[in-house]
Amino acid sequence: MTADLAAANSGAGKVRVAFDEAALGAWMAASVEGFAGPLTVEQFNGGQSNPTYKLTTPGQRYVLRRKPPGPLLKGAHDVLREARVQQALAGSDVPVARIFAVCDDESVIGSAFYVMDMVEGRIFWDAAFTEVPKAERAAYFDAMNRVIAALHSVDVEAVGLADYGRPGNYFARQIGRWSKQYLEDELAGRLPDMDALAEWLPTAIPAGDESGIVHGDFRCDNMIFHPTEPRVLAVLDWELSTLGHPLADFAYHAMMYRMPGDIVAGLGGADPVPLGLPTEAEYIAAYCARTGRDGIANWDYYLAFNFFRLAAIMHGIKGRVLRGTASNAQARERAESLPRLAALARAAMEKAL
């Protein structure tokens, strides 16, 4: 991501999606252990989907995530699921923020929300980790690799998430879901590349099925790293998490090797070695070693699927921009990346054929 986009998505400021702050303060006084006002509310600049706020009191800083106002697609923006998975993973090898309280009463601020700890650390918007010395960058990649491998190794029954999604047939269900949302949002328009992928993807799903907890948007800028160490303190933004195929989730994460940096955090196809980073093959091998795999076949299919899925998400952002319900000031710029993402998905499809 460019420095300008990183700056635009960092920090917090003026509240863009407002609510009754006094009502929130009263609810927190009754629901959040140790809460003591007065309360100051700012809205984070990052985040495309669920409006996210920084809550400050004299003794504590919190983060609030809520559903956006206005008409929503069925099943989208389910912040209560985000809270549930983080609560379930607390104490596991997957680092998450502490959830203080959850509210499903829409009368408080106008939509469901939850309040979690504001974890102090660093968020990297540049997938090359150029902010840290070259000799240390591989360790940051290894930290991400360790966490996603740990996530895919979680025993879903042991943490109470056996019913967090429908196990099995993940690709078919996901392709159906995102194709449907893409096709139904007529206001956002159609693209030939997306149409071709929606037709091909369900016909070429690799054999073999697995199921585990998947994050759905596992990238460096959805993690908080330790202030000085190559260590992940918390994984953020669990909106797209569910039970799914771990290789789909890992391929989405490893897509950073192909992803243009001005769309989301990615290397844009640059040679990672001069940057002090592991190659794509080395990164895949590290994940396989941690998860007991011999390798990953059908890699290009997984990439095509994920570029299509991300393009469908950007298509949804475009629809929200056109409807005036986008929560992020950079939403229009993000939506403009849709044709390039669709083209990258088409290229991966052609390679997989």
Write the layout of secondary structure elements.
Elements lengths: L2 H7 L2 E2 L7 H11 L8 E5 L7 E5 L4 E6 L12 H11 L9 E5 L9 E5 L16 H19 L17 H15 L7 H9 L11 E3 L8 E3 L6 E4 L6 E3 L1 H9 L25 H12 L7 H25 L7 H5 L2 H15 L1
Antiparallel strand pairs: 1-2, 2-3, 3-4, 4-6, 5-6, 7-10, 8-9
Index terms:
12% strand, six-stranded antiparallel sheet, two-stranded antiparallel ribbon, 10 strands, alpha+beta, 353 residues, globular
Tell me roughly what share of residues is in helical segments.
Answer: 25-40%
Strand order of the largest sheet: 1-2-3-4-6-5
Quaternary structure state of the chains depicted? single chain
- Rounded radius of gyration (Å): 20 Å
Q: Indicate the overall shape.
A: globular
The helix count comes to 11
Please identify the structural class as seen in this structure. Answer: alpha+beta
Strand content: 5-15%
Largest sheet: number of strands, sense, barrel closure: 6 strands, antiparallel
Uncertain parts: none
Series of secondary-structure elements, N-terminal to C-terminal: HEHEEEHEEHHHEEEEHHHHH
The number of distinct β-strands equals 10
